[in-house]
Amino acid sequence: MQTFSVKGVFWLLLALTLLTLTGCSEDGVWNRPYSDEQARTNTLFSNFATPPKHLDPVRSYSANEWAIISQVYEPPLQYHYFKRPYTLEPLTLTQMPQQRFLDAQGREREATSEDVAMTEYHFHLRDDIRYHPHAAFARDAQGRFLYHALSEQQLDRIKRPADLPESGTRRLKAQDYTLAIKRMAITANHSPILGTMRELIVGLADYSDRVSKKPLTIKQLRESSVKGVEVHSDTHFSIRIHGRYPQFLYWLSMNFFAPIPWEALAFYRQPGLVKKNLSLDTYPVGTGAYQLLDNNPNRQMRLVRNPHYQHGTYPTEGLPDEADPDLLADGGKPLPLIDEVVYLLEKESVPLWNKFLQGYYDASGVSSDSFDQAISVSSQGDLSLTSEMQQKGIQFLSAVEPTVFYLGFNMDDPVVGGYDKTARKLRQAISIAVDMEEYISIFLNGRGVAAQGPIPPGIYGYERNRDHFNDVIYQWSDHGPVRRPLDEARQLLAEAGYPDGKTPEGEPLTLYYDTPATGPDAKSQLNWYRKQLAKLGIELVIRATDYNRFQEKVRGAKVQLFSWGWNADYPDPENFLFLLSGDQAVINSNGSGVNASNYDRPQFNQWFQQVKRMPNGPERQALIRKMVKLVQEDAPWVWGLHPKSVSLFHDWYRNVWANPMANNTLKYHRLEAAKRVEKQQAWNQPVVWPLWVLALLIMASVYPLVSAYRRRQRQTLVGNTAQNAVQNRAADESKAAPSTSSRKSGEGPSC
Question: How many CA atoms lie within 13 A of 138 on its CB side?
Fold first, then answer.
């Protein structure tokens, strides 16, 4: 047994070493984070850092949520993928909405008539659009729903709707769009645009007040009606709004107006599914190019092609002259061009970047840590790829985003809020001290523009010339606006009642900053914020939490200072000015508004109501200037920055185009999976010679021990054999000699 054991250990070590050297993957790639089979399929591999909280379109309004649901849901309109300026086009409609202009009595008027009191939009749906397969639509042979009354046994067997054995679909109907508007009106659903739509859609305010008093059954909700929303047929509905509002068409490209099938509401209302957290918030139901099949926020989310999607084709025109003409090579092809999209959870930027360089992610942003490795900046500030990236065939897109990131003050807070001179000077002093140009340089590698107001570049109303800049925070120089010196900030702070950052009691002024930034990457940024306020003698206390809890605190006005941002939903200044409109303040809208700072100035509110209905022109521009000037003086935000995006993607990832207005662009992208596998193999060949050396060392160290053991065993065996031979000879001699006892008994003398 001992000999077998030592030999067995030797051969086992040798076998394991050889097995390791041959690799665990059939193509020799050992470290791929997904299977070989997946890598060869028409699957896009992306990532997410923060799990989405709401996938129900009536509630969802965060970028990480829209990245998912915009592939699933389809509002009536979308942005053309290529055209600039940004251009709306029909998505589920046969044509752009038709408009009728009406007076107060509902009589039709000319568009230019002064007595226009309402605008009526008519929508005509395509008849070839169907929902993706879902258990909510499944019926038996008699037409009865199979899963609208799930048994306990059925509930025990499922973790997602797709676990149920049957699914169904049906055609999109006009009633699905009107049902979405009704759901928006129910205050318990916390739709962030309800405040805006109440004032806009005829009859929605009265309807919202009526149906929000008590929960409605699905039947009651379907049978109820909004005065200004009418279904004319299964493919025709209309919406009537107050006055003229050209921007209303932009809203119709947003997920809030995506259709909702009543069958999905009835299915998800079952208590057993509610208990399992299965709802539209976790598994949406739509007509888009993809459906969400798996939603595991702690690991991965998976979108798969909608097999019933047949109403979209790749664009054949609209590409700007300076763009690569190859972007139109797929013109006219049916969409989507990718079969599956897998989002993997990546909480840290370093492993994400490394996996992108290994070819395991098809696209990536560029963090500050990896910027120098990826991007070269010329003396004129132009960006280009480094030679390392070019050798890998990596490509990039860069553009200033129609986005604003800001440090917000809660205007309802007793310390930093309020509209008197002292509170205003405190906020102005902090705004000067928080050096956003330094932030952009340190943390964004220069990829951004310091904001001077709420409107970003590329949006009508943005100005940065000598006559129109934020002279509260900046002063003009030969190089443009330059931040005012810190001494002016200290003077403002003293005038606010906090000389050298001290309270009237002589204690340091302490402010509280809430943030969802909890990872190691955020530590240096949070320390930077502390140092900015420390320049004024103010102590900043960080209160970090997860993103979902952070949203709850902001929407409950339970913060003092916080950072947040806004991506343009549509290319109009109203979409940024309404972030400071009083009716959108979270304290005035039950937490559903988008005015997280709770800024509420009557003068600003009045101007906003005027400017949001005006067409672009000198009159509108003049009013926008007044609004921007007012909020610059009140300083409800430290105006933050407008980021410059840099997106990298591998050369096997095709049809990638920057369109910050559009969110449903995955359907246009294409992959060359075979090329991806080839590059992954080339970039991830294991370095095996150290393992061979290790194997030889193991053999060299184990073999002498085995040989010595075997010699010892042989010596023992020889010794035992010799001893046995001596004993055997002695026995043989003993047998041959006469016995003493026998002689005495047989040979004694006779008497």
Answer: 17
